[in-house]
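Quick one: structure tokens for this chain, please?
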Amino acid sequence: MDNVFKFMGGFFKGLTQLLISFAALAVLAEVVFGAAMFPGMEVVSNITALISQLGNGGFVGLVALLILWSILDRK
């Protein structure tokens, strides 16, 4: 049973890293080319809106930001 949890943990960690890499590539492409990489998907404006919502959330936004940071910073 322990092997299943290790496998799933490794799978989701790899999937998270892959999605973060795609997001970084999409931001870079949007900045360089000035248009969304995929039609209807504006990554920079979505990230800006997310940061704005977290900033307007007060303490709850700070807690959500800390949770996101701990997920992304896990090594």
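The radius of gyration is 16 Å.
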